[in-house]
Amino acid sequence: MGDRVAAVVAFVVAAVLEVTAARAEICTEAARAQGGPLAGGTDAADFGAIPEACSGTDLGLRLRGTALVASANPDFFGAVVATSTLRLRQRLTRSSRTWLTLAADLLTYRYVVNGPVDSQGFGFGPPTVGLHRALGEWPRTATAVYGRALLPLDTARSSGVRTGLELGLTGRRQLGTTGRAGVQGGVAMIAPFVVVAGQTHTVFEPVALLEAWFAPRPRLGLSAGLSVRAEVSPDPTFLTLAARVAARIALRHGLAAAMLVEVPVTGEDRTDLISAFYLGWASSE
C-alpha cells in the first residue's frame, strides 16, 4: 500500500513539474527571439498595437518610419513621418500575472509635401499607460486581457486634444512540442476621441492581429502575418489591411534587436510603407 501511495505521489509531482516546465516554455524569457508580436501600425505610443500575452520586465526603444506617396494628386504629394518611442514593461506581482506598460513618443518628425509648399516640424508625445492581466498559462497557450489609455499630451497638435481608451485580448499558442513555432495575436477595441472648441468627437475602431512565428534557432525569431483596423462608429469605414514580416535576434546580457516591415494593401488609410527598428533590454528574473 505504501509503495502505491509513493508511486501516486511521484506521478503527481512529475506531472506538476512537467506542466510547470510547459508553462515556462510558452512564456520563455523576454529576451528570447520568439517573444510576442512587435508593435506596429501608425498610431502614437503603441496605441492600438496588440501587445504580448506573456508578462515581463523590459525596456525598449523603437525607431519607426512611415511613408505616403501621392504624386498623382494635384495638391498633395506625400508625407514622411519618423518617430522614436520609449517603452517600459514592469511586472507588478511576484506571480508575474499582472504587469504595467508605459510608452511615450519622445520625438516625432513630420515632413509633408502639400503642393508647392513643404511643411516640416518636430513634436513630443503623446504617452500611453496600460495594465495587463494574464488569464492563464497552459502547456502551450498563454492569454491576457489589457486596458490602455492614451494621455492628452502631444505638442504636435496645434488645436484640440486627442485622448482615448483601449480594451483588448491577446494570446499566444505553441505548435508542436519543440517550441520552435506557433501563432500569436489578438483583438482590441480602441476609442480615440478629440476635443476641439469644446466639442468631443469619438470613434470606435476594432483592431486585430494574427501572425505565425518560427524560431530556427533559440536566438533568432521570424514572424509573418496580417493586421486589420476599421471604424464601426460613427462612420463605418475599412481603414487598413496590412501584411507584416519581422525578424528578431537575442543578443547577450538581455539585449535584443528587431526589425518590422508592414505594407498596407487596402483600406482608406493611404500609408504605403511602415518600417521600424527595435532595440531593447529584458530582465532575466
Q: Characterize the largest beta sheet: strand count, sense, and whether it forms a barrel.
A: 12 strands, antiparallel, barrel
- The H-and-E topology, N to C, reads as HEEEEEEEEEEEEEE
Strand order of the largest sheet: 1-2-3-5-6-7-8-10-11-12-13-14
Low-pLDDT regions: 5-24
What's the helix count? 1
Structural class: mainly beta
Mean pLDDT: 84
**Count of individual beta strands:** 14
Distance between the termini: 42 Å
Helical fraction? under 10%
Radius of gyration: 21 Å
Globally, the shape reads: globular
The amount of beta strand, in percent, is over 45%
Verbal overview:
The chain has 285 residues and is mainly beta. The chain is built from one helix and 14 strands. A twelve-stranded antiparallel beta barrel has the order 1-2-3-5-6-7-8-10-11-12-13-14. The protein starts with a helix and ends with a strand.
What is shown here, in short?
With 285 residues, the protein is mainly beta.
Key traits:
59% strand, 1 helix, 14 strands, twelve-stranded antiparallel beta barrel, globular, 285 residues, mainly beta
Map the helices and strands.
Blueprint: H1 2-26, E1 58-69, E2 78-91, E3 98-114, E4 117-123, E5 127-137, E6 141-150, E7 161-175, E8 181-196, E9 199-202, E10 205-217, E11 220-231, E12 237-250, E13 255-266, E14 273-282
Antiparallel strand pairs: 1-2, 1-14, 2-3, 3-4, 3-5, 5-6, 6-7, 7-8, 8-9, 8-10, 10-11, 11-12, 12-13, 13-14
